[in-house]
Specification:
By secondary structure, the protein is mostly helical. The chain is built from 11 helices and no strands. Helix 3 packs antiparallel against helix 6, helix 3 packs parallel to helix 11 and helix 6 packs parallel to helix 9. It is globular and about 75 Å long. It starts with a helix and ends with a helix. The C terminus is likely disordered.
Length: 301
């Protein structure tokens, strides 16, 4: 029976490695564009710093807990690829952003990770105690990262558009969560299992939303009727302005033109505000999408 569980866990671990490997490579097109244009184009470094920290945490967990070779392989690769991403980012980002990124790398991946390593050895005694302490640290961090898709889900529901919810990546992340969930269950490892329960839940929600809204027309902001003011005013003209009074006709005509211009100006201002809001929302969602794509790939293991 134990041999069967061993074969199952190995199979799930290998499949998890493959799916996570592809997830780690998801940002390659982004960094190819960065190298080609020699600009980070406003992308944030937080997802990559967090992904490196996550991979290092799981690598340390696998090192402390014996027999976790499959966790070591994928997270070792994750540490290497995320380091390459960050090196490219630091090379081409603006000087001010470079300093903040380096500061964040030092604080999270050196000071933070170093503190966890020290606390693990000081506060916990023996392998079992260290595995338990480090395991819960990994669970808390990995689960918090899974909150990233919430903003994407909110935007999809509000706009009824799956523009920022690519089906292939969502499906791949779902498969990765399933494989690592089964891997954790087969080993009875609660620390690997719990984060991937959350990942599986969000993955199912994203796939469901994609199937619901994939053919939907995105919701657009309703505009005021272009001639609404004219209709109302023309009714007033019929009741107030005598047809024979030329001077009053001219005066009212001027008033109509002024009111129409005011209405047009209001419409233009309203449209500009909507465009700015949509632009800001797209930028925010773009960053959140990037955060989801990168961070989840480093935590679903």
């Amino acid at each position: 029976m134990s041999s069967q569980h061993s074969h199952l866990s190995f199979a799930f671990g290998v499949l998890g490695n493959i799916s996570s490997f592809v997830c780690f490579l998801a940002p390659l097109p982004t960094f190819y564009r960065v190298c080609k244009k020699k600009s980070t184009e406003g992308f944030q470094s937080i997802p990559y710093v967090a992904a490196l920290f996550s991979a290092a945490l799981w690598l340390f967990y696998a090192y402390i807990k014996t027999g976790e070779t499959l966790l070591i392989t994928i997270n070792a690769f994750g540490c290497v690829i995320e380091t390459i991403y960050l090196a490219i980012y630091v090379t081409y980002c603006p000087k001010k952003v470079r300093m903040s990124t380096l500061r964040m790398i030092v604080l999270m991946n050196f000071v933070g990770f170093g503190t966890i390593v020290v606390l693990t050895h000081v506060l916990a005694k023996g392998e079992e105690g260290r595995v338990k302490l480090l395991g819960w640290i990994c669970v808390v961090f990995a689960t918090s990262v899974f909150a990233a898709p919430l903003s994407i889900i909110r935007v999809v529901i509000r706009t009824k558009s799956v523009e920022f919810l690519p089906f292939p990546l969502s499906l791949l992340l779902l498969i990765s969560a399933v494989m690592w969930l089964l891997y954790g269950l087969s080993l009875r490892d609660i620390y690997v299992t719990l984060p991937n329960v959350v990942g599986l839940t969000f993955g199912i929600v994203q796939i469901t939303l994609y199937l619901i809204y994939r053919k939907s027309t995105p919701v657009k902001d309703e505009k005021l009727p272009e001639h609404k003011g004219d209709v109302v005013i023309s009714n007033e003209i019929e009741t107030v302005v005598p047809a024979t009074d030329d001077e009053k006709k001219i005066e009212v005509s001027v008033d109509i033109e002024i009111v129409n211009k005011k209405e047009e100006k209001k419409d233009e201002q309203h449209e500009e505000k909507k465009e700015e809001q949509v632009s800001e929302e797209k930028t925010e969602v773009k960053n959140e999408k990037e955060k989801v794509d990168v961070s989840k790939s480093g935590c679903e293991v």
